[in-house]
Write a structure and sequence with these properties.
This protein is an alpha+beta fold. It has helices at residues 23-35, 49-57, 84-95, 110-122, 124-128; strands at 15-18, 42-45, 68-73, 78-83. Helix content is 35%, strand content 14%. It has a four-stranded mixed β-sheet with strand order 2-1-3-4, with helices on both faces. Residues 1-8 have low confidence and may be disordered.
């Protein structure tokens, strides 16, 4: 495992870890790139070195087959990770504008939100396909990808 990555490497920017082989996840990342007009979020596939370093620091993530949002406070060097529905709601917040309205779904108990997320996640390859390898970002957006 690569030990060279840390929370400080992303300079306080949130990083979305995603399944780089999932057709839906690939489309979702492209969607987030389009609507994150401030360029706040960074991206890294779960299959890459950055994700391996995060998972190495947060061992319970080894059991997670989900989007993982990594937030770091660069001044303190502290790192928080969010999975499943909470990651999605935090991403909507970062995208800003009307997307922030999605936080209303926090009124739904997290267990219900995560159950719904898991049902969808289990069938994502069936409905959206599995890619042979991680797609390459456009040169315009490549600075936002860590691996």
């Amino acid at each position: 495992m690569e030990e060279g990555f840390s929370a400080v490497d992303v300079q306080g920017k949130p990083v979305l870890l995603y399944d780089g082989l999932c057709g839906f996840c690939d489309s979702a990342v492209r969607f987030f790139l389009r609507f994150d007009t401030q360029g706040v979020m960074r991206f890294a596939p779960l299959q890459g070195e950055f994700a391996a370093s995060v998972i190495g620091r947060h061992l319970p993530l080894r059991e997670v087959d989900s989007l993982i949002l990594v937030e770091s406070e660069s001044q303190k060097g502290e790192e928080q990770v969010h999975v499943r529905s909470e990651a999605v709601l935090r991403i909507a917040w970062y995208m800003g504008g009307l997307w922030k309205a999605f936080v209303i779904f926090r009124i739904i108990p997290r267990s219900v939100r995560d159950w719904s997320y898991d049902v969808f996640a289990r069938s994502r390859y069936r409905y959206f396909g599995r890619l042979d390898n991680c797609s390459m970002p456009s040169s315009k957006a490549s600075y936002r990808f860590l691996d």
